[in-house]
Amino acid sequence: MKLLYFAWVRERLGVAEEEVAPPAAVVDVASLLHWLAGRGGAYAAVLGERERLCVAVNQVHARDPATPVGADDEVALFPPVTGG
Fold it and tell me: Does residue 63 lie within any of the structural domains?
């Protein structure tokens, strides 16, 4: 699974992207975020602000935490975007 991080998420984690192999229990956005937070350190701090995060799976906004994720997916974490 490819993870992409944008804006303050990237700054706090200190990485723009990474390849991960989550355990089989990671089947949706909610379980992915829980697993990532369990990595501790900056991940726990950033994911402690889940209400301030948006997630996209394969470039489609995943508003529902039950959105499925799989090993071949690209998942992006980013703050809410405002337009003008």
Answer: yes
How many Å is the Cα radius of gyration of the chain?
12
pLDDT for 9 equals 95
CA distance 60 to 48: 23
- 83 inside domain: no
84 found inside a domain: no
pTM value is 0.93
User: Which residues sit opposite 60 in a β-bridge?
Assistant: 57
Sign of the dihedral defined by the CA atoms of residues 12, 59, 64, 28, in that order: negative
Range of the domain at 73: 2-78
Q: What is the pLDDT of residue 18?
A: 98
The DSSP string of 48-59 is TTGGG-EEEETT
Block mean pLDDT (10 aa), the chain, length 84 = 96 97 97 96 91 94 96 96 61
